Amino acid sequence: MENFRKKIISWGAKLLLGLLIISFALWGIGDYTMGGKDGDEIVAQVGDQTISGRDLKFRVNNSVDRMRKIFGEKVSSEQLMAMGVIDQTLENLIEESLFTQYSQKLGLIISDEILGAEIRTDKQFLDSSGKFHRDKFRQLINRLGYNEKTFMELYRKELIQRQLLSTINFAEVKPKQLLNDLVQHRGERRIAHIFKINHQSMRITNRPTKQVIDDFYKKNEKRFISPEYRSLTLLTLTPPQIAGEIDILDTAISQEYEDRVLEFSTTETRSIQQIIVPKQEQAKEIIKSLNKGISFLETGKKIGEMDASQINLGEFTKSQLPIKIIAKKAFSLSLKTFSEPIKTSLGWHVIKIDKITPASVIPLSQVKNKIRKEMQLDKATDALVGLANKLEDELGSGATIQEAANTLNLQTVKLIKSDRLGLDDSGKPIKILQTRPEILETAFNTAQNQNSPLTDYDDSSFFILHVNEIFPPKLRPLKIIRKDVIKTWEKEQRQNNAAELANKLSSLNKKIKTTKFVTSLGQTKPLTREGKGLDIAIPGDLISKIFNAKTKETVWTGGEEQTYMATVEKILPINPSNNAELIANIENELQENIRRDLREQFANAIRTKLDVTINKKPIEKMFYQSQ
């Protein structure tokens, strides 16, 4: 169980990553028994079966897309790869192949009858009434890029694997002591007093000499290496770029206006006041009061015992008034006139019209340009596909992106230097790359002097780029960046001074007092190890240190601009009787981790009977050579 114990340490992130990758076992997998076709290289040999680079890349891309929806679009491929996506995805494919071959050895089968029954009861293919919907079935397999026969065989393979692993999947292993320990560990809460040292408040007593800066520069050369930059020629095709060139006839605009006239029309509205009373005699008294010239508000307050907010109903169209008889009367009265008493199930109503806003239609002359631009954009969207095809034809005939753009009267953008964050060599953001991360990612996955594929984005736009030159990382000369080096040295001195102060204060085991260097941020509410309940912004690793400290112990952690300290005030153990949901969640996660560990051990046992060989070269070529 050593492997299992390792998993428990950081099970949160690993479980999420693993489940994201495993979720593509059926819904995002190429048929790995077909490895090697169309010149695709083999990345792994598992017994008699092969796993192709195409299958691995397809699964990795799907995993990355799914994870970006969770972690955010700005997470780069490199960051996701560093999380182990490639290795875990390949291991998952190998595991599936092992289980498939072992199932075949055992003679496990799924008949056509059982296969059909399983598919007909799969929730993904059921309509709102719970019945199998063939169109939904076809739409899904088409979206995945399969024909029906291939999909059915993949589904059969998945069912066989479930059958093979059924003992593991339905195992109920619940180590009581481990569960109790985890509940106490994760359910414990703590209260801490938080302090902050602002680095800018720390003094630097001695100015650095030339020799000090020279030595600092040499010692920290890695910090002053410029990132890789790329020079690009970018061509985008978007509807607004060509919309202005599309002619729209006035007759077409007029017809569009007629078709959408309701969009440019407003319905008559009326501001209504109302007094409502339970008895007819009271309603008659209201009419007498109004006829004497007493205001509607005064009459409502005196006879109806209503305040202004109850009397002033607001502005309505006729259809917005829920009682038909009231609506009919309200829209038949003249301005500033009141009605006779009206009987409804709610009582007796007297209404008055305080304001009338007539119905209106915005004339064509005022919206003509708006309609024209909208129609141009619509037609531009349709025309863009044809333009993209023409561009590909030009490029296919040997033209450069610039030459193709000139032929088709399109504009390119030349980006002299950009790093992986979309910043130029002066550190300023390049707008188009900052707002379109897919362009930036493509730029750093395209080789020098090569075009990227023509890629669609935003449903109706395209881009293609050429990498003109790659500027590899290099050490920036000290004579050019001396001021930056001095600032970096000063920043580090302040950080070190703040760390020394925090270390000194925490080691005294005394109550920390606020000074011109130390600021109190107050006492936290009870918080968990995950930071739940925290109402003061602090670094994540300070939370870990809080939960490793004793009562009244002070811990600290450094940051870029501030150093934070925390004194543990109270430790609050979990009360199991009030945390049934947390206990159930931990129990389920523990059960899932045990099953996954057993599944992995089972796969390792099969692996001893089947040769598994991994070919690293094509993997590096696919995922790392351009990084």
Question: How would you sum up this structure, described in words?
Answer:
The chain has 26 helices and 19 strands. A hairpin with a 2-residue loop joins strand 9 (342-344) and strand 10. Helix 6 (85-106) packs across helix 25 (580-607) and helix 12 (210-219) packs across helix 23. The two termini are 37 Å apart. Mean pLDDT is 85; it is low at 1-39. It is α+β, with helices and mostly antiparallel strands and 627 residues long.
Task: Kindly provide the radius of gyration, computed on alpha-carbon positions and rounded to a whole number of angstroms.
Answer: 36 Å
Mean pLDDT: 85
Q: Widest sheet: strand order?
A: 16-3-18-17
Largest beta-sheet details: 4 strands, antiparallel
Judging from the principal axes of the Cα atoms, what is the shape? Answer: extended
Helical amount? 40-55%
Proportion of strand residues:
15-25%
Per DSSP, the total helix count is 26
Please provide the count of β strands.
19
Ends: how far apart?
37 Å
Identify low-pLDDT runs: 1-39
Structural class: alpha+beta
